[in-house]
Every structure is written in C-alpha cells, then in structure tokens.
Structure prediction request, 1169 residues.
Amino acid sequence: MPKVTINDRTVEVEAGTNVIEAGVKVGVQIPHYCYHPRLTVVGQCRMCLVEVWQNGKKLPKLQTACSTTAAENMEVRTDTPEVRQAQAGMMEFFLINHPLDCPICDQAGECGLQDYSFKHGVAFSRFQFEDKRTYPGRERIPLGPNVILNMNRCIQCTRCVRFTHEVSKTGELGFFNRGARTEIGTFPGKELDNPLSTCVVDVCPVGALTSTRFRFAERVFYLDKKPSICTGCDVGCNITIEHRRGDIKRYKPRFNPEVNDYWMCDYGRSTFERYKTVPRLRACRMRGQEGEKTGTETMGSWKEALDLVHRRLRLRTDGAVAFLGSGFLTNEEAWLAARLADYAGSPHRGVPVDLGAGWTIPNLQGGITGTELAPNRRGAELFLRPGSGIELEETLGGAGNGKEKPQVLDPDELLLGDGASKCAVLVVLDSDFGRGAYTPEVVERLRRAQFLVVLGWADSPLAKVADVALPVATHAEKDGTFVNAEWRVQRFNAAFPAPGQARSTVEALADLLGRFDAKWAGLTADKVFDRIASEVPAFTGHTWHTLPATGSALHVPGAHTAMSDAAAETLPEVS
Amino acid sequence: MTEAPVPQTRFPGFTPEARAQLDILRARYPTTEAVLLPALHIAQRLSGGWLPDEAIQAVAEELGLPESKVYGVVTFYDLFHQRPVGRHRIRVCTNLSCQLRGSAEIMETLHHELGVGEEEVTPDGRCSYVHFECLGSCDTAPMMMVDDDYYENLTPNQVRGILKGLK
Amino acid sequence: MAFERVLTRNVGNRDALTLDGYRKTGGYEALAKALKMEPDAVIEEVKKSGLRGRGGAGFPAGMKWGFIPQKDPNQPRYLVCNADESEPGTFKDRLLMEHDPHQLIEGCAICCWAVRAATCYIYIRGEYTKAAAILERALKDAYEGGILGDGVLGSNFKLDMYVHRGAGAYICGEETGMLESLEGKRGQPRVKPPFPAVVGAFGAPTVINNVETLCNVPHILVRGADWFKSIGTDERNTGPKLYAISGHVERPGTYEHPIGITFREMLEAAGGMWRQGTLKAFIPGGASAPILKASEIDIKMDFDTVAKAGSMLGSAAVIVMDETVCMVRSVARLAKFFNHESCGQCTPCREGTNWMELVLKRLEHGEGREGDAMLLKSVAGNVGGNSLCALGDAAVGPVKSLVERFPEEIDAHVRERRCPFPEYRYF
Prediction:
C-alpha cells in the first residue's frame, strides 16, 4: 500500500489509486472535469495538473493527477505558483469560447465552470477582439426524449460519450470533427434513447446537456435536498429528492456502491410526477351513516374514521376480513398491517404485483435488474404472507369454525376472482398499489366487500368508492425502510411534511392498533423497525439508527411472488 | 453552397471485389476495429469519392462497430468527405513553403477557371477543390493533388492545362 | 566536401525498386547478417551507433528498442514504421519510400528481429498514394522472394509486414495518435504513461520509428557502428542526415549531408537564395521549430546545437525566407495549420491554438492592438507544457519565436494598422 504525500499530508492508499482519489482521502480537492471514477481516464481537460516529485526528483512537466498513480515516495503539490498558473490558464481557455449563458442556463448553481472559475480562475477576460466559436443550429437539440444538447456550452470533456460506451453500453454518443470544431452528438437520425440516458446530464459538468424534464423548472439554489430511495422499482436506487417547500422538482441519483453506484434510470426519475398529477387524498372521508353502503360522503376527523374502522373490524358479521397490501408499503407499515390482521384473526393477506419489470442499473458487481416496478414487494410480503395468522384466527374463534382450513383470500382471489364479495371487511393498505386500483373491473370487484377501507395518498378510483378513505403520506413525506431485489434493507426519511390531514401509514395503523391494545399507540417507524429486528430472524442485529448509509443485506431463503405473471398480464397498462 | 446536380452516387453496397479486399484486410489485424480506416477508403471509392450516411452505416454493420464511433472516425480525417465532391477532387497545398512560392495564385486560378468557391462542386459535377495542409512536396512548390496524383512545380497556365484534361 | 551518399544512394536507380536490383546494390546483406546475430547484439550495435530518431524527437533509437520487454516470448510485439510525414516542410521520407522501398523494408525487418516483433505496420499518410503503391509492390516482391513471411531468408523467423494508409491527419504522426489510428479509431493521442514500449498497438509492446531512422539501420549493420559514428559532429549527433530544404532557395529538394553541416553550407549546396534574394529568416526543423534569424546562418544543423540556440532540428525540414516575407503572415499560416490539425481533446491545445490563430489573423489584417505580443506570449506559455501531447508544444514554437525574435514586425503591423509587406495574399 503506497504512501503518498499531497500538500504535506501523507496518506496510505490502495495500490492503483490515482492522485485525485488520494487527494480526496486527505481533504485536498484537485479540480477536474473529464475524470470520473467509473469512466476510463483520458486526461484531456488538463484541469487536474499538479506538481509531482518522485523519489525527490521533480518531474519536468506538470502531471495530470487523474492519470498519475500514487506511488511510494511520491510527493504532490497543488498549491504552488506553477500549478495555480496552469489552473488559471486552463480556466481561461475554457471560458474564451463559452457563452455567457448563466442567466438562462439550468446548470447555474451546480456548474463546474462557475465553481472552478471562482476558485481557480481570473476575474477578467482577455478574449476581447475575436469572435467566440459557436455551433450554429446546435443550441437546443433534443438528443433524445430526455436530453437536450446546447453544443455552445460544451467543454469537450467527453464524459457523456464515455458513459454511453462504457456504462450504458449503448454507444449512441460520439465525438465528431477535430480540433476547435469538435462536438458531441449522435449519428445523424439516431437518438440518445436508453434507459439510463438522463445520467449523461448528471455527468456533464456544465449546462451543455440538460434534462428535458427539469429544463427551466427551478434554480438549483432554491432546492431543498433530502436523501431517499426511489420507488420506481425494486432495485432501490439511492436518490436525492430535490424539492422547493414540498414541491418535488427532480430526483437525482445518490452514490451507493452496493446498489446503484452513481446511476439511476429515466423511469425512476419520472416517478415523482405521479405525486403531482394523480389527485391527492387530503381528508378522511366516510360514506353514509355507520358505514352504510349508500349515503353521502362526509369528511371527518381521524378519530371518527378510525373509530368506525375499529368497530367494523370487531363486528365481523358474515364474511372474512382481508388485507390487501402493496409493493409500495414500507416494512414497518406492512408489519403493523400484519399485526392488525392478527387482531382481526385474518389469514387473508397478501401483496399484489401487477406492474412490469424494470431495467438494469450497472454497478461494480455487474448490476441489479429490477424485476417489478414497485420498491418493496419483498419486504411487504415477508410480513403479509397469505395464510399466516391462521393460528391466531382459531384462537379468536373467527370465521371457519376451526374445523376446516378456510380458503385463503390471496390477492389473485381478491383482484381477479370473487374474493372481495366474501369479505365483511376489506382493508386496502395502498390506494395506488398498482394497475388494479385504476382498472374499472378490479375496482368493481373490490367494491363488493361489505365494508371497504382504503388507505392511500392517491385519490384513485378505488379510493373514491371506499367506505372509509384514509389519507396518508407519500414516501417523500414519511420515514421507512424498503427491501430491494437483492434483499438489502435501506432506510429513508421524510423530506417534507404531508399535506392536509394526511399522516404516515405507520402513525395511522398504530393509532388503529392502539384501539385494540394501548401498547401500540404512538409507535413511530424507528421503533417499529427495532421491534421487527427483535422478532424477525432475517432482520436480527439491525437497529433503525445504526442501519448503514449503504443499506444492509438480509438473509431470506425462498422468495416468492403473490400474483402470478399470467394473472398480471390480464390487466391494462398503468396510466 | 451550390447544390450541384452531382450524380449522387448512393452507396451501392460492397462489391465482391471489395469483400475480397476486406477479407484480406481482416487477416492482417488482431481486431476487426483496425480494419476501419481501410474499409472506409474502400467504401468511399465505391460511393464516388465521398461517404454518404448509408455507406457509413454499411461499414459500421460490416465491422460490428457502433455507428457513432464510425461517424466520429469519418469526421476526424481530412481525406474522408461527408458531402458530395466532384468527379475530380483537387487539393491545393497552401502551407508555408507553398505559400512562399505562390500557392495563392494557384487557388485564385482555380477559383477563376472553375467558377466555384472552395468545397463547392462545379455545376457539371466535374471538379471540386479545397486548400490543404502540407502534402509533402515542398521542394516542388506550388503544387496540388488531383485525385491520387501530385501535380508539381505549377504555374497558373499549367493549372489551366490540367483542368482542361479533366473529364 | 566529398560525402558519399548512404540513404539516397539508390535515388535515380530505377532498378533498385525491384528485389534483384536492390540486391545488386548490396541489399538484404544487412538482414542476413542480423539474422546470424543475437537480437540483443543488434540492439547494442544500434545503440553504439548513436542513431537518434529522424522523425522529430531525436530520441536514441537503440535505447527505444531496448525498452521492449522480452520476458515473455509468446507476447506479441509490434513495429510501427511512422511514414505519416505531415510536418510542413518535410518530404524526405517520401523520397526514400518512392525510390528505395526495399531499404525501408530491410530496416524494418532488422528492427523486428532485434525486438522480436512478428508484425510490422508501415503507417503511411493517406495522401502518399504513389508511395503506398510502390511499397505494396515491393512488399509483394519481398514476400515472393522469401524476405518476408514464414521464414525470413530461410530462417525460422516469421515476419509479416503491411502497409496501413492513414486518412489525412497530422496528429497521427504523434506516436500514440498513430497507434489509435492504426487500431481504427480517431487519431487522438493517449495519456502517457503507459508508454508504447509497454502498452502500444493492440495493447502490446510496440516500437515506433521514423522511415529515415529505419533506413539507417541496414547501413549500421553492414558498415558498423563505428563507421556511423565517424560521420557527424560528436558522439551525440552521428550519421548521415537528410535535409529537406524548400522555400526561397534556388534548388529546393532533399539533400543528404553528414549531420551537423552548417546552414550556410546547406544553403550553398541548394543553389543559394532564390532569385538572389536576401536571407531574412529560416526554420531549421519543420513548422514546430522556432524560427531563426539570418544572423544565425552559421549554425551547425545537428540536434544539440540547434536546441542550444533555442530551436530544434526536428525533422530537418528547412524552410528559407527572404526579405519579402512577412513573419507575422508566415507564423499566422503556421498557427492556422496547428489549429486545423489539433485533435481537440485537450483544452489548452484546442482552445489555445484557435486563439493564437485568431490573434495572428487579426494582426495580419491590420486590427492588431498594443499588448497583442504580450498576449500571444502569455497564451503560448499556458499551452506549452500543459497539453496532452507534443502538438501543443509544437504550436507555440513559431509563435514564441515571432514574439521574441521579430517583435518589431508585430509592432509595425499594430502601428501601421496593416501588413507592411507586399500585397496581402489569400490564406
């Protein structure tokens, strides 16, 4: 492990580490544009030039830190006049042909040229009597559905080109022409259209590549940023929710070498828009008096609504009590729902999956492929497994007489079969659980339950026909954990509070459970997680507060799906 | 730029001779990618001296390379043309040694005789000309390259004579 | 001085283009001799001779050959002959290839034997169609004559040699730019290290040598390193040298002299100034070399002397300028060349060569300003030393020499707001 000294700070690094990475380890930031940890080193922006001594001898020219491997007896300096002159010189070269677009450029506030110009550049221009180079007709070219190119702003670092060839391996972008006229682009007539295409916007240090979705949406310095997990699929990419006072403007990927590395897919980036386009459930809504099927809707308080639900759960006339989960439930919500099902003496629980497959997000272990477009079917299903809780039901003397095993109403039965009509109470834990919630036939079937309770953030067609609709938080408004396709549990926290009467599902369920037994009242997600960790073998050893930032792998043998692929095929596309 | 009625030779596909040539070339290099420059020379010849997009796509497919990479290579080199050229392509060296010995006059003569500017094609599709960098014939300056041949020690009169001989 | 031609001895002898004709002049004896020697002994002989690269960098050839790792006998190794010759003012390699192709083939074969390479590519610039055709013919004859192929001259040394045509890019004369172009990519130079001797063509150790350099090798083998050393200035500047002289001389052309001949003698041998003009300035080694003034006419044209004078011998492409020449215009044309040929990868070269051309154009068009000379010097200072490859350094050579040696010409352009020299000509 070679020891290298950078600006008098010595550090021991792995063999093969370059000087930029070594600098990061000792808090020395070496400016760079073309270098990226996941792309081949090209050493072409020349911004990372540093002075290097090897075995006491100074190398005759400045070296690029990105292409210099840290070696034993190597000394590096980044603060000498020669280095400063080179940095100022390079900044000047970048800016002479760069348009003064800051006032209209999305990148302002997170721009590599702005940042290094401030730190390493000079405050005046000497390019006064010549014309700037431009690329006429290439100022706002859609390269594909998600990315717009402004070639005038490009600094020819080729990160985007290398990304499409080395990471997404789709090779759409190329470096064309030569010399001062070099430009990036696609083969004439071809598009930049791969599942990871918006990642080139992330890697572009300047505003040459911008996201069509985010274009002109918000100034980045007005954005509040909260780390979270994407709910697009079960890869569980780590993201940052960037919002302005609760109005989400974009998702950006957050580095997690165990899951999504530096990347996320275009679909995942679009998932926050549902929170703004689908009508929002903001108040508790009850139908009729004492839950009669007919009758007008009234808005009520949480107390009134939960009291009603509690009564109907205890009442349990003819019929089963069933619980329909969702791949979007957090582990804590699913576990509490299972406890509620236990109190109801019901084995009828499950998690439907009727959304398609996701894409592969590359990482250093090869990549993770999304198998369904929901983040936590695995976690939810651990706790809401059809048929579990039967022992409890027999103890409570529920429907079934203890003589024969009752038919378990699993999600297939409920959504596609006749299951709901056999229910005295059907509790749908997520009004946006999948395509079914928006399919008229499915909604009709579920409506046949005698008493339909729907929790959700979305005022979906299903929520509209509920006997009790309870408004809850989106994942951006609550704390929770998800389990991804590789059985890794990851934690996220609320970015902003939920609107109106909406509360987190954990709060709502704890409140409801509290009516069965006071010990449940007031539970929060962190406490629920710790309870799970103490009771469920796969989670042993974890606590909410000590969960690592990169998540933690669980060991769960024998995974299974709740809804068969064939059954899912019968549902129409989700809107 | 003149939109000339040049016979827009579309890429006719690789002829059997061309394929035979490519096979010989493939055996010379450890990677298929290395055949790219020779393959582009062949394709350009088949397309009448320039490389339409179809030719580029055909080469990309033939060698199993991404189109963007092949396009990047085509646009990098001065001898690969992406716009139609005349049946005869003239390149006049105007670098220092030739400039010292009168390359400017040669360019002016061509402009005058052909009636078109640089990079433009004459209306009858016969010629196009460009200025070029050092062609390695500085001792016989001024000079120009017509198709594959060097014409050296030029005077404006000689240029006129050469042009007359081009069909 | 009665100097017996070595490299150009077959120029004018059309018979030497054929295999038999070449053999009659003693051809392929050197290769036969080399095959009987240990490869390392061949490298030693070349090292001893002091042969320095004739392509521009002047790096000792034998030392370069010695860098090739030999631990693994099954590892592929390559020789790439640099026949890209695009440095303005240079045309010597073309002469060698068109008139004595077998000399080059023999030199390449000996090098391949010495570094144990089984494949040699002659990367020739695309514009040299005639030379490429002549080489192809000579290679065909060589294969048929048992010089190349499965058993070179009856030995069990297997050697393949091919011509690879470039497509018009000066930067492909840079060694890693050449390797990229050979591999079928844009000719963009690579970051060094790793150097081609370790990771070269197709990832394998590779030697890259200029045509003239390799043409010297058969003569070194046959006549000995000591003979080679006896020609030239001192033990660091040895051997015969081809000087390509052009511009305002009576008889431009390629002349073979012992390395270190003075410029005055060279000028005389080329017939003196064109139309009895007065010498104003001359470039000793191609467009990248800083321009020297007429007062330096007695300079010895070898690597070290020219370097000490603040310029470089480079490819020994000598461009002569008389009193009618505007230095600003000339350097502007060279700046245009470097801007056109820059590959565009690295920032200082891409932007800096562009900027320098714009400033020089402005000066030449009479729109120069006070401070332009300082600006050029500063920009050149930021480009030189900071670029990814030597083209950046080359581009600043003429600009720096203009500012340092001919400041009064820049001043005249600024003051008079026009070019004071005869008639502005088309660029």
Notes: The longest strand of chain A covers residues 238-244. The domain at 284-526 of chain A is CATH 3.40.50.740 (Rossmann fold). Residues 81-96 of chain A form the longest helix (16 residues).
